[in-house]
UniProtKB/TrEMBL annotation:
<keyword id="KW-0747">Spliceosome</keyword>
<protein>
    <recommendedName>
        <fullName>Pre-mRNA-splicing factor 38</fullName>
    </recommendedName>
</protein>
<dbReference type="GO" id="GO:0005681">
    <property type="term" value="C:spliceosomal complex"/>
</dbReference>
<dbReference type="Pfam" id="PF03371">
    <property type="entry name" value="PRP38"/>
</dbReference>
<keyword id="KW-0507">mRNA processing</keyword>
<comment type="function">
    <text>Required for pre-mRNA splicing.</text>
</comment>
<dbReference type="GO" id="GO:0000398">
    <property type="term" value="P:mRNA splicing, via spliceosome"/>
</dbReference>
<dbReference type="InterPro" id="IPR005037">
    <property type="entry name" value="PRP38"/>
</dbReference>
<comment type="similarity">
    <text>Belongs to the PRP38 family.</text>
</comment>
<keyword id="KW-0508">mRNA splicing</keyword>
<keyword id="KW-0539">Nucleus</keyword>
Protein backbone atom coordinates (compact mmCIF):
# COMPACT_ATOMS: atom_id res chain seq x y z
CA UNK A 1 0.00 0.00 0.00
CA UNK A 2 2.82 2.35 0.93
CA UNK A 3 4.60 1.55 -2.31
CA UNK A 4 1.57 2.55 -4.40
CA UNK A 5 1.25 5.80 -2.42
CA UNK A 6 4.92 6.63 -2.96
CA UNK A 7 4.60 5.95 -6.68
CA UNK A 8 1.58 8.25 -6.89
CA UNK A 9 3.43 11.02 -5.07
CA UNK A 10 6.45 10.69 -7.36
CA UNK A 11 4.21 10.78 -10.44
CA UNK A 12 2.36 13.87 -9.14
CA UNK A 13 5.62 15.68 -8.40
CA UNK A 14 6.95 14.80 -11.86
CA UNK A 15 3.81 16.11 -13.56
CA UNK A 16 3.83 19.30 -11.47
CA UNK A 17 7.50 19.91 -12.23
CA UNK A 18 6.93 19.44 -15.96
CA UNK A 19 3.97 21.84 -15.89
CA UNK A 20 5.97 24.43 -13.95
CA UNK A 21 8.90 24.13 -16.35
CA UNK A 22 6.60 24.57 -19.35
CA UNK A 23 4.97 27.60 -17.74
CA UNK A 24 8.34 29.19 -16.99
CA UNK A 25 9.49 28.56 -20.55
CA UNK A 26 6.34 30.20 -21.87
CA UNK A 27 6.86 33.26 -19.66
CA UNK A 28 10.57 33.88 -20.07
CA UNK A 29 11.92 37.34 -19.53
CA UNK A 30 11.66 39.61 -22.55
CA UNK A 31 15.43 40.12 -22.67
CA UNK A 32 16.00 36.36 -22.85
CA UNK A 33 13.42 35.98 -25.60
CA UNK A 34 14.94 38.91 -27.48
CA UNK A 35 18.36 37.26 -27.55
CA UNK A 36 16.96 33.85 -28.47
CA UNK A 37 16.22 34.16 -32.17
CA UNK A 38 14.27 30.88 -32.23
CA UNK A 39 11.70 31.98 -29.64
CA UNK A 40 11.39 35.65 -30.62
CA UNK A 41 7.83 36.78 -31.34
CA UNK A 42 8.19 40.56 -31.07
CA UNK A 43 8.26 43.24 -33.77
CA UNK A 44 10.58 42.60 -36.70
CA UNK A 45 12.92 44.89 -38.60
CA UNK A 46 12.89 44.08 -42.32
CA UNK A 47 11.58 40.64 -41.43
CA UNK A 48 14.26 39.68 -38.89
CA UNK A 49 14.77 39.79 -35.14
CA UNK A 50 16.30 43.23 -34.33
CA UNK A 51 18.98 41.52 -32.22
CA UNK A 52 20.44 39.93 -35.34
CA UNK A 53 21.25 43.37 -36.77
CA UNK A 54 24.38 43.12 -34.61
CA UNK A 55 26.84 40.29 -35.23
CA UNK A 56 26.74 37.52 -32.64
CA UNK A 57 30.26 38.29 -31.44
CA UNK A 58 29.27 41.90 -30.80
CA UNK A 59 26.06 40.84 -29.07
CA UNK A 60 27.98 38.53 -26.77
CA UNK A 61 30.47 41.25 -25.87
CA UNK A 62 27.63 43.67 -25.12
CA UNK A 63 25.63 41.31 -22.91
CA UNK A 64 28.80 40.27 -21.04
CA UNK A 65 29.89 43.86 -20.40
CA UNK A 66 29.61 45.59 -17.04
CA UNK A 67 27.88 48.61 -18.56
CA UNK A 68 25.09 46.45 -20.03
CA UNK A 69 24.48 44.58 -16.80
CA UNK A 70 24.74 47.60 -14.52
CA UNK A 71 23.50 50.59 -16.53
CA UNK A 72 21.13 49.09 -19.12
CA UNK A 73 19.10 46.84 -16.83
CA UNK A 74 15.42 47.81 -16.70
CA UNK A 75 15.75 50.81 -19.01
CA UNK A 76 12.77 52.12 -20.96
CA UNK A 77 12.67 54.80 -23.65
CA UNK A 78 12.58 57.61 -21.06
CA UNK A 79 15.31 56.35 -18.75
CA UNK A 80 17.48 55.40 -21.73
CA UNK A 81 17.37 59.06 -22.70
CA UNK A 82 18.86 59.91 -19.30
CA UNK A 83 21.69 57.44 -19.94
CA UNK A 84 22.29 58.75 -23.45
CA UNK A 85 22.73 62.37 -22.35
CA UNK A 86 25.62 61.16 -20.18
CA UNK A 87 27.53 59.77 -23.18
CA UNK A 88 30.90 61.36 -23.86
CA UNK A 89 31.83 59.65 -27.13
CA UNK A 90 30.61 57.49 -29.98
CA UNK A 91 32.23 54.27 -31.13
CA UNK A 92 31.96 50.52 -31.41
CA UNK A 93 34.50 48.40 -29.54
CA UNK A 94 37.85 49.34 -28.07
CA UNK A 95 40.89 47.85 -26.38
CA UNK A 96 42.65 44.55 -26.91
CA UNK A 97 39.60 42.64 -25.66
CA UNK A 98 37.29 44.77 -27.86
CA UNK A 99 35.00 45.97 -25.10
CA UNK A 100 31.78 47.61 -26.32
CA UNK A 101 31.38 51.33 -25.75
CA UNK A 102 28.37 52.64 -23.79
CA UNK A 103 27.20 54.10 -27.11
CA UNK A 104 27.02 50.63 -28.66
CA UNK A 105 25.34 49.14 -25.57
CA UNK A 106 22.61 51.79 -25.63
CA UNK A 107 22.10 51.26 -29.36
CA UNK A 108 21.52 47.56 -28.69
CA UNK A 109 19.13 48.46 -25.87
CA UNK A 110 17.19 50.66 -28.30
CA UNK A 111 16.85 47.68 -30.61
CA UNK A 112 15.48 45.69 -27.70
CA UNK A 113 12.96 48.39 -26.78
CA UNK A 114 11.87 49.05 -30.37
CA UNK A 115 10.45 52.56 -29.76
CA UNK A 116 7.98 54.17 -32.14
CA UNK A 117 9.15 56.41 -34.96
CA UNK A 118 7.89 59.53 -33.16
CA UNK A 119 10.02 58.67 -30.13
CA UNK A 120 13.15 58.40 -32.29
CA UNK A 121 12.43 61.76 -33.94
CA UNK A 122 12.01 63.26 -30.48
CA UNK A 123 15.41 61.88 -29.49
CA UNK A 124 16.93 63.46 -32.62
CA UNK A 125 15.49 66.86 -31.70
CA UNK A 126 15.55 66.61 -27.91
CA UNK A 127 15.99 70.05 -26.37
CA UNK A 128 16.47 70.99 -22.76
CA UNK A 129 13.23 72.75 -21.69
CA UNK A 130 15.32 75.42 -20.00
CA UNK A 131 17.28 76.29 -23.14
CA UNK A 132 14.51 78.47 -24.55
CA UNK A 133 14.99 77.24 -28.12
CA UNK A 134 12.02 77.86 -30.38
CA UNK A 135 13.16 76.61 -33.77
CA UNK A 136 10.50 75.76 -36.28
CA UNK A 137 10.34 72.20 -37.50
CA UNK A 138 10.67 71.54 -41.25
CA UNK A 139 8.59 68.97 -43.07
CA UNK A 140 11.17 66.26 -42.42
CA UNK A 141 10.63 66.59 -38.68
CA UNK A 142 14.35 67.13 -38.08
CA UNK A 143 15.65 70.51 -36.96
CA UNK A 144 19.31 71.21 -37.63
CA UNK A 145 19.72 73.79 -34.84
CA UNK A 146 17.99 71.71 -32.19
CA UNK A 147 19.18 68.81 -30.10
CA UNK A 148 21.00 70.06 -27.03
CA UNK A 149 22.58 66.65 -26.45
CA UNK A 150 24.69 65.80 -29.47
CA UNK A 151 25.49 62.23 -28.43
CA UNK A 152 21.81 61.51 -27.91
CA UNK A 153 21.23 62.75 -31.46
CA UNK A 154 24.09 60.59 -32.75
CA UNK A 155 22.61 57.54 -31.01
CA UNK A 156 19.18 58.17 -32.53
CA UNK A 157 20.75 58.68 -35.98
CA UNK A 158 22.58 55.35 -35.65
CA UNK A 159 19.29 53.64 -34.75
CA UNK A 160 17.59 55.25 -37.76
CA UNK A 161 20.27 53.83 -40.06
CA UNK A 162 19.81 50.37 -38.54
CA UNK A 163 16.02 50.15 -38.61
CA UNK A 164 14.36 52.65 -40.97
CA UNK A 165 13.72 51.89 -44.63
CA UNK A 166 15.91 53.48 -47.29
CA UNK A 167 13.68 56.45 -48.13
CA UNK A 168 13.14 57.37 -44.49
CA UNK A 169 16.86 57.00 -43.77
CA UNK A 170 17.69 59.66 -46.34
CA UNK A 171 14.81 61.95 -45.36
CA UNK A 172 15.63 61.72 -41.67
CA UNK A 173 19.43 61.84 -41.72
CA UNK A 174 20.20 64.28 -44.54
CA UNK A 175 19.06 67.36 -42.55
CA UNK A 176 21.65 66.40 -39.94
CA UNK A 177 24.39 67.07 -42.50
CA UNK A 178 23.97 70.71 -41.47
CA UNK A 179 24.94 69.92 -37.88
CA UNK A 180 28.66 70.68 -37.58
CA UNK A 181 29.20 70.03 -33.89
CA UNK A 182 32.28 68.13 -32.76
CA UNK A 183 32.04 64.51 -31.63
CA UNK A 184 34.60 62.39 -29.85
CA UNK A 185 34.98 58.91 -31.33
CA UNK A 186 36.54 56.06 -29.40
CA UNK A 187 38.62 53.70 -31.53
CA UNK A 188 40.73 50.69 -30.62
CA UNK A 189 43.31 52.35 -28.36
CA UNK A 190 42.64 56.08 -28.46
CA UNK A 191 40.12 58.84 -29.18
CA UNK A 192 39.73 60.78 -32.41
CA UNK A 193 37.84 63.93 -33.30
CA UNK A 194 35.00 63.89 -35.81
CA UNK A 195 31.88 65.94 -36.51
CA UNK A 196 28.19 65.24 -36.56
CA UNK A 197 27.90 65.82 -40.30
CA UNK A 198 30.84 63.46 -40.93
CA UNK A 199 29.28 60.78 -38.72
CA UNK A 200 25.96 61.09 -40.56
CA UNK A 201 27.75 60.97 -43.92
CA UNK A 202 29.44 57.74 -42.79
CA UNK A 203 26.02 56.31 -41.94
CA UNK A 204 24.76 57.18 -45.42
CA UNK A 205 27.78 56.01 -47.40
CA UNK A 206 29.57 53.25 -45.47
CA UNK A 207 28.64 49.63 -44.82
CA UNK A 208 30.29 49.44 -41.40
CA UNK A 209 30.11 52.09 -38.67
CA UNK A 210 30.87 51.83 -34.94
CA UNK A 211 31.93 48.21 -35.20
CA UNK A 212 28.60 47.24 -36.74
CA UNK A 213 27.84 45.97 -40.24
CA UNK A 214 24.99 48.02 -41.70
CA UNK A 215 22.46 46.75 -44.19
CA UNK A 216 23.16 47.77 -47.79
CA UNK A 217 21.59 51.17 -48.42
CA UNK A 218 20.62 51.73 -52.07
CA UNK A 219 22.23 54.75 -53.74
CA UNK A 220 20.26 57.96 -53.54
CA UNK A 221 20.31 58.31 -57.33
CA UNK A 222 18.49 55.01 -57.64
CA UNK A 223 15.69 56.18 -55.35
CA UNK A 224 15.50 59.44 -57.30
CA UNK A 225 15.09 57.50 -60.56
CA UNK A 226 12.19 55.62 -58.95
CA UNK A 227 10.60 58.97 -57.92
CA UNK A 228 10.85 57.98 -54.26
CA UNK A 229 13.09 60.93 -53.42
CA UNK A 230 13.39 64.45 -54.76
CA UNK A 231 16.76 65.62 -55.98
CA UNK A 232 18.81 66.98 -53.10
CA UNK A 233 20.18 70.48 -53.46
CA UNK A 234 23.46 70.88 -51.63
CA UNK A 235 23.88 74.01 -49.46
CA UNK A 236 27.20 74.51 -51.28
CA UNK A 237 25.51 74.65 -54.68
CA UNK A 238 26.25 78.07 -56.29
CA UNK A 239 22.65 78.52 -57.46
CA UNK A 240 21.34 77.83 -53.98
CA UNK A 241 23.81 80.28 -52.46
CA UNK A 242 22.81 82.97 -54.96
CA UNK A 243 19.11 82.47 -54.24
CA UNK A 244 19.77 82.76 -50.50
CA UNK A 245 21.76 85.94 -51.04
CA UNK A 246 18.98 87.49 -53.13
CA UNK A 247 16.29 86.54 -50.62
CA UNK A 248 15.73 89.56 -48.31
CA UNK A 249 14.28 87.33 -45.59
CA UNK A 250 17.51 85.30 -45.46
CA UNK A 251 19.57 88.26 -44.24
Amino acid sequence: MASKTDDAIVQYVSISTSALTSKMAAHRADASTFLDNRGYKGPLVRGVNPATLFEKAVRDRITDSYYWKEQCFGLNAATLCDRAVELTCIGGTYGVSEKPTPFLCLAFKLLQLGPDRDVILELLNFTDPGSGGEDEEPESGVVKDRGDFKYLRALAAFYVRLTFDAVDVYKTLEPLLLDYRKLKRRVRDTFTLTYMDQFVDDLLTKDRVCGTSLWKLPPRSQLEDLDLLDERISPCDPDAMESDASDPEAS
